Amino acid sequence: MELIPESTQQEILSASISKEWANKSALINGFKSSIKQYSSFNLLCQYFISPHFDIYIYQLQNKDAVRVFLQSNTCKWLLFYLAKGQNGQFEIEDHQFGISEKSSFFAKTSPGKSMKLDLGLGGYLFICCNLKMPLASTLQNYYTPVFKNFDLNPILLKHISIENQIEWEKLLHPDGPIDLLASTLNSKVQIILANFCTCYKERTYIDLKAEMNPSEKKVFKIKTYIDCYPFKRHSLESLSNLCSLTKSKLRLLFKRQFGKSVLDITPQSLPLISLDSLPAFHSKVYHLE
Which of 152, 197, 213, 258 has its CA 20 to 30 A from that of 30? Predict the structure, then answer.
């Protein structure tokens, strides 16, 4: 995924990492890095590319307000997180929306088509997780149903939870070489997506949950957990411990509320995926505060 400046920007220098960034602990071991300097901003890009997903981490120091474009020939779904910086303005599929610090969005994109990004003066840090074709079946079979009642694109979550922020930050600060294995990074991306879906679902049904009694809320929490974490193997015992209900009570309440046994909807395995088979989203944006 390439960050392209507006055509009026003049590239001054393309070189290795500058001393300003190299002296900091911001560089991620195992990620490739490059720096470019333009007339209005300096750009540090760190990236990890694999067959299933790409991770791009951008740091910008803007001398002025700038307009840049994100473009990829392989990106079909994009998970985006603005870790630092004032509000930005995005345009995806001719639809504009604002994004603030500690916010995230999930969007379907068209390979080769640019996304416009307007940023103000100052420093910015944002992460792009580019989900590729092999992940499509997971999105199709498990995550798309979470959004099935909302044919909207992109889905924006403002001010995501601390837990979700911590998962994003782990991409910036790996604990060691084992964390830089493609399988480990892929697991982290899946957890980030699962947390995103959980937050989305909880905010979407906040009014519905307000009318539930405590036991019903616990059962709803379990349903959300099963839906949003399909890569985990769930057992009745682990789920009952999660909601502090006995196994028999959970089984009874879940059947009463959803009409199915709790284990009937628990995925047994996670197949590989193809993004082309996913339904197209309309160019709208669904904001969740």
Answer: 197
Integer Cα distance of 120 and 67 in angstroms = 9
Q: Are 262 and 245 in contact (CB under 8 A)?
A: no
Domains of the chain: 2-135+153-176+283-288 (2.60.120.10)
* SS3 annotation, 225-262: HHHHCCCCCCCHHHHHHHHCCCHHHHHHHHHHHHCCCC
The mean pLDDT of 72-96, rounded to a whole number, is 87
pLDDT digits (tens, 9 = 90+) for 61-71: 998 899 999 88
Pairing of strands 88-92, 66-71: unpaired
Contact 32, 70 (CB under 8 A): no
Residue 115 parent element (H or E): strand 115-119
DSSP letter, residue 40: S
Amino acid, res. 216: E
Q: 271 to each of 102, 138, 139, 265, how far by Cα in Å?
A: 31, 6, 10, 16
For position 89, what pLDDT does the model report? 92
Cβ atoms of residues 12 and 38 within 8 Å: yes
pLDDT in tens, 229-263: 777 778 888 888 888 888 888 888 888 887 878 77
How far is it, in rounded angstroms, from Cα 155 to Cα 140?
Answer: 16
- pTM for the model stands at 0.78
End-to-end CA distance of the chain: 28
Find tokens 């603030």 and name the residue. Answer: 100
Beta-bridge partners for 283: 153
Q: How far apart are CA 277 and CA 226, in angstroms?
A: 23
